[in-house]
Amino acid sequence: MTFLVLMAGLFLLIYMKEPFSKKMYGYVYLAFYLMVLALYIINTTFVNLISSKLLLIITVIVISPLFISFLKSSNESR
């Protein structure tokens, strides 16, 4: 499930050309997204650092601003 949420977030990052209005916020968000992706890869491949449920919760928290931004932009285009 975590993998699907991470890939949905990656799709939204690619689909939306500028997901955030402020550039600095976009860079910070991208850094957090990449850290969660790296944590997922390390957690599933090498060492179990945190539980999978906690990783899913962190992933949903990181992806939710992007999803909200996507919903706002889709409502504005109507």
Automatic annotation (TrEMBL):
The chain crosses the membrane at residues 26-42, 54-71. The keyword Transmembrane helix applies. Keywords: Membrane, Transmembrane, Transmembrane helix. This is Uncharacterized protein.
